[in-house]
Amino acid sequence: MYTVPAAKQTCSISSLKTCTWSPIRPTHFTMERVHLPIEEGMVLNIAELGVLEPIIVWKDPETGLTCVVVGRQRVKHTLEANKLRLKEGKDPLLVPGVVKRGSANQMAKYMVSENEIRRPDTPLGRAKKMSDALDRGLDEDDIAVLFGCSVQTVRATLSLLDATQAVREAVEAGTVTVTQARQLASLKPEEQREKVSEIEAATAGTTGHEKARRQRQILGDAKPRLKTRKEITKALESAEGEYASALRWVLGEAV
To answer: InterPro entries per the record (predicted)?
Structure first.
């Protein structure tokens, strides 16, 4: 098992492969986060910038195992990022690490606090950061890597800056989503404010699917509803020519 020397602040990823993700004794605390899937955005971000925040490791005095207490997602994603870097002929990355001493109970506190105490940016805050990055000469692909998201998300987030104050405040309050805000931003300013007022009134006191349903009723579905096989078959009865051929192709019938 690998132990990070107190004087050393970077961990070899190959060595960290032998680390257990969390303390394994029955009295130890573990979290479901360890089972989170790999995110491509985070992999690309680490491949480009490396791991910016040190992980915390702890050696269990009872088993002698070295445990990754804080930063398990960083280690998992760095392993994937190094696969990309090696394919590109680049050197593998190291993970900065700090050794902590203490009881299993203390390590459990670190685990919870490290994730739960964070305060993510608001959508508008992210939009302003993205806009600043554009002003500094970065393109949308660069920004997508920096924020660990897709180019489509970058564009949708930036569109907040083109919306009225009413729409921005609605996004910050969670009344509408960033995607819906982009839809609203295409309307005239007065129409934006009217739609926001309608949504606020219609969704007051609702959550989840019901809230989303009422939002769609006011804004309309951005995506057209797909027709069922029964609907396509019925349409085929009166269809002719190329349209009929297209419907048969959709149904998988020989043309």
So the answer is: Chromosome_partition/occlusion, HTH_ParB/Spo0J, ParB/Sulfiredoxin_sf
